[in-house]
Structure formats: C-alpha cells, structure tokens
Amino acid sequence: MSLPTFPPFQIREDELSVGTRWRKWIQQLENLLTGMNIEADERKKALLIHYGGEEIFDLVDTFPDVQKSNFDALKTALTNHFTPKVNLVYESFKFRKMHQIQVESVDQFHVRLRRQAALCEFADLERELLSQMIEGVISSKLRKKALRDKVTLHQFLQEARNEELTNKQVGEIKEKSSEKQERHKTAVKQIHHEDYESDSDSAGVFQINTKKSIPTVTADLCSNQVKFIVDTGASVNILTKTSYDKMHKKLILRPDPIAIYGYSNSEKLDVLGRFTASIQCNGEKTQATFYVVQTPEKACNLLSATTFQELKIILFLNNVTISENLFEGFGKIKGIKIKLHIDEKVQPVAQKHRRIPYHIRKDTEAELKRLEEQDIIENVEGATPWVSPIVVIPKKTGGVRLCVGMRRANEAIKRERHPMPTLEEVEVCGGVRLCVDMRRANEAIKRERHPMPTLEEVINELNGSKFFSRLDTKQTFHQLELSEESRHITTFTTHVGLRRYKRLMFGINAAPELFQHHLNQILHDIQGATNYIDDVIIFGKTREEHDRNLQATLDRLHEREVKLNKDKCLFGAQKLTFLGHVFGEDGIHLEPQKIKCISEATAPTNVAAVRSFLGMMQYVSRFIRGYATITEPLRMLTKKTQPWTWGKPQQDAFDQLKSALTNAGVMSYFDPSKPTEIIVDASPCGLGAILT
C-alpha cells in the first residue's frame, strides 16, 4: 500500500513556536487520517510515528508504555511534551502586533486574533479581543464609535458587519479574502517571515499551487520577462532560484537574516539573499526588494501586495487580474477609424453662430480646453462647408455640457444601420434623454445592416449562468476615432473659433450603431461575453468559467486600449440588473424600480397617454398572464373609430395590470435539453400560448 506524502514534524526548527507548530501539524495529520478512512487505533498510532519522522520516533521511544498505549494517549503525551515550549510573552507580543490587513474582512480578522489569543492564556479573553480589535481595525469610524460608546465584542462585530454591508451596497468593490480562502482552501500555502533585526511582525504571502486558473502577471525585472503570482496577502517579493538563474542580467545577492516559513508544513525556506531592482509592468515602474529562495522546481515567484499596488495592478476574485490602466485616461480604441458615408448630393450648410452668454463663456472655454487636451476635438483653420452651432447647458453641479446641433449636418451623413433597440429592448422608465428630431437627416443615410442583440437573445445567452460581471465603457463614442475625411462634417462654431471632432460624437445619429458593431467585433470570439452598445456583459455557469471569461475579456479590452468606468463596473455578482430585468441562477424577474415606476403611474387622460402606458406594459407583458385579455378595454381606446371614454372596464383593466405586475413571479430560462410542449388557445380578444 502506497501512502500519501506528508511532511515530518521538525522539533528543532524553531523552539519558540514548537507548541503552535505541533498543534497545527497534528490537526493536519488527523484530517489526513480521516480522509484515508483509517479508524483502527493501532494504524493511527503507527502512522503518527511514521509521519512524525525520525525525531518523533526517537522521542516516542523514550516514553513509558502507558503514554503510547493508543493513539489518543500518544497524542496527549506529545502535546504535553511540546506545550511547555510555548513562550507566553512572545505569543502575547505577536497578538499585540496584529492588525487588520486591507483585503481582510472584520470577521476574518477576528478569527485570526482568536486563534492567536488561544496561545496567550489571557485571563479575560473577550476583553483582550475587543481591545485588539479596536486597536487593529482599519476603519477609523468604527474605532471612534467603539471608544466613544461602551460596546461589547459582539456589538462591535455586529457594527463592523453592518458597515461592510453598507459599503458593499453603495457600490464599493471589495476584494473578499474570505471567499478566496474558502475557494482555494486546500491549495493555499502561506509563507510568513520574521525579521530578527527589526523585530517586525510576521506577514503573509499566499502561494497558490493549483491547476485552476490563478492570477499571474508577466513583468520586466532587470530586462528579464518574469512571471509572478499576484496575491493581496503577499508581504514580500519572492523569486525562486530557478528564475534567478535564468535571468540574463543578475544582481549581486546580499545576505539577509529574514526567516521565511511554509505555513502548511512549517519548513523554513532557504533564503539565498536579496536584491533591490526596478520592475515594470503595463507601463508602470517601481523599485522593489526581492528575496531569492531555494524552492522545489515547480514553485512560483510571488509579487507582494505593496509592489503590485505600486505597479497599479489590482486583483479581483482570486484568479482575475485587472490592470489599473483599463480605468486611466480617456481611451482611443486601437486599430479602428470610423468613416462616415457622406451623401454629396446634400448641399452643405454653414449655420450661423449662436451667441453664448457672457457669464458661462469661461466655463465654455474650460470645457473646450479639456476636450482638446483629451484629443477629442481640434482647431479648424480655413474655409469649411459644414458648420454647426453649439448649445451650452449649465450643469447643476457646476461647469457646462457642450452640445453640438447636428440636425442639418446629419442630413448629409450616410448612416451605417446597425439595428437599434425596439420598444421591447429599451428601459421602461428611469431618467429621460432629450433627442433631436432627425427624420430629415435619416432620409439621406445609407444604411449598413449589422445585427444587434435583442432582449430575447440576451436572455438565451445568460441561460444557466450563475455569475455575472458588467463593464461600462468610459465616454463611450469618444473612444472611436474619426477618419480625417469624416471630421469636417462635425465642425462647430464657438466664440473662440471653429473646432471639429476627432472622435465619434453623440450628435451623430449613427453613433450607437457604430459603437455596438465595433465593440462586438472586438469581443466576438470570446466565450461568455457580449455587449449591448457600451455595456459589456460577462457570464458563466461556474465561478471558474466566469473568471476565465472575465479575464479573457479584460485582456482583450486592454489590448485594444478600451477604457472603462471603474465606478460603474460590476464584478463577480450572482445577480445582474440589465435592461430593466434581474438575471440570476433562479431565472429572470423585473427590476423592482421598474415595477415601482409603473405601479405608481396615474390613470391616462387621453389616447396618447393610453398608448404610452400600453407601450410600457408591452415591454413587461411576458410576466403578465392573460395580457391580451386584460388590456382589451384599453386597446379599444386607441382605435380611431372609438370615442374617448374612461369607465369602469378601463379602470379595472388599468388596476389589474398594475396588480399583476406587482405580483409578477420569476420566469425560468428556456432549457432546450428538456422535452418541449406548446399549448395554444384563442379568444375573441387575444391569443395565448404556453411553452412547457
């Protein structure tokens, strides 16, 4: 019978921590024995001595027979032997030095403190824990509240949980260290170090040895391309001797008294020395110290939390790395120049300049300067056939919004027709957008037809998905560069001269379709990713599948220099709100805000209001059983031959629709793998079908 490998216990490794290391080692051994289904006492005792190694064997040989008669007796004897080795002063010192780290939840910090406190033999454990929690917690708000109010440990933890939940609800993206440790519990090795010169506290480094996708980056270290594992728990940079030997340009190693231990097996790593050098990644550069260690051949290099933060690399979800460059700057998508198809038959129009009020001219100039600095607009010299006026709208928060009146210019633009959202595909309510009447301009547009996903297609794509991310592109249309021959059509007049756009702009009627098409082309070959104009949706049936799809999408966007709005991005959620619907593992239901908007609507007072209400209800009709029958009294009012009358049948239909919507349930996804049955029926006022 072949036995699994298990590290022997090193008694003389570090006598100060022998008790702690023994308790951890024996617990891991018992887990191994349980996993091997070994219950016979003699076998358990034999394996303890076998796995304990030569030092344990020699020690057990000195015990009297009564102390080694069975597994539990031998375990107790060994525990009693090592327990006196615990240094209470040293363990208490370590406890006082513990602080919450950035990626650690308050509950996790509490667990870590409680484990260390168990070694200190405190007389009042709860008071000591509360004191160190207040001292070591990151949140100064919690600390002030705890010092101001007399709170118990339980109350402090509850207040901390409430604060963390509130922060999450207002949209702060928090890395969840607890999730990371849970998902990779069997695959994580922690390395800590003790600096004997500075007496600094131990700090963690997570080394992930797993076949699953793990967060890695390739960085330039001394003109060498070196691959590192990135982890928020890392406190020091580790470079294996294998990687060091492969470097073309080596730096002299300086001796260092640092001691680095393997967390799971308590084996001290052989530190060969350290060096300080420049490291560069994604255009960012910093100086960092690296410790070269003698490790097994397959060991990985580790990048510390401090270093990857200085390189502006952020980490999310255990196995996804996100470059801060994705959120910096204003973006110009690489490899694309938009050519607008201008109908030369349309006579160019140079419209008159519209005077800008003096009190907002400085704000206007500042806005123009900002757009120039962002490479979005440029000065225009000489004659130009097309000139459009601008409308300057003061913002409530200060500053101005610059709008170019493109109504006449759009008449000459041949439009690329990428299908736009139908009534079913737009959000029912929530905010408004003022649109220019572009009917005349659309007559001159030659359309290119590119498909755009409908709501039904989005539903089918998300079928079965349990994890979701949504990425919001920054300044949307401005990320697409206009070709030189297309820029003249965007010329506009200001009180400081003529300007024109170098990027696609919101006033051009084909802009949404063009952006949808080109972003779709960038992502078309990535599994589990789709876009709806400026929103990119990533999904997966498992956490691993989602993370793999998200990483591929982020890498592609970074490669094509697409910029994102960090504050509007959603990562790794189990529910996704999109197009007025909430998608989740259990199915699809309406967004509560949409239900509220419709349920608070007042009764229509004319035919136009009835049409508007029915338009909103049509979008959510899939959630209302018998929709056609219920709406029949209202639809009758929209007929030209029907005189306006709002009586009991209409009011009842109106109220019934709102009630049905308020009580709407969850719709399941269509599963093509299951048997399909369609049941149809008809009535004088409607048709019905059930898909089961």
Gyration radius, to the nearest Å?
Answer: 33 Å
Q: What summary fits the major beta sheet?
A: 6 strands, mixed
The CATH topology of the largest domain is Alpha-Beta Plaits
Q: What is the structural class?
A: alpha+beta
Based on the coordinates given, report the CATH architecture of the largest domain: 2-Layer Sandwich
Helix amount: 25-40%
User: CATH class of the largest domain, please?
Assistant: Alpha Beta
Strand content: 15-25%
Helix run count: 21
What average pLDDT do the residues reach?
Answer: 76
Q: What is the global morphology? A: extended
> Considering the protein shown, what is the CATH homologous superfamily of the largest domain?
Reverse transcriptase/Diguanylate cyclase domain
| Overall structural domain count | 5
Low-confidence segments, given as residue ranges, are: 172-213, 414-443
Strands of the widest sheet, in order across it, are 5-8-7-3-4-9
Please report the total strand number as a whole number: 29
How far the N terminus sits from the C terminus, by CA atoms, comes to: 54 Å
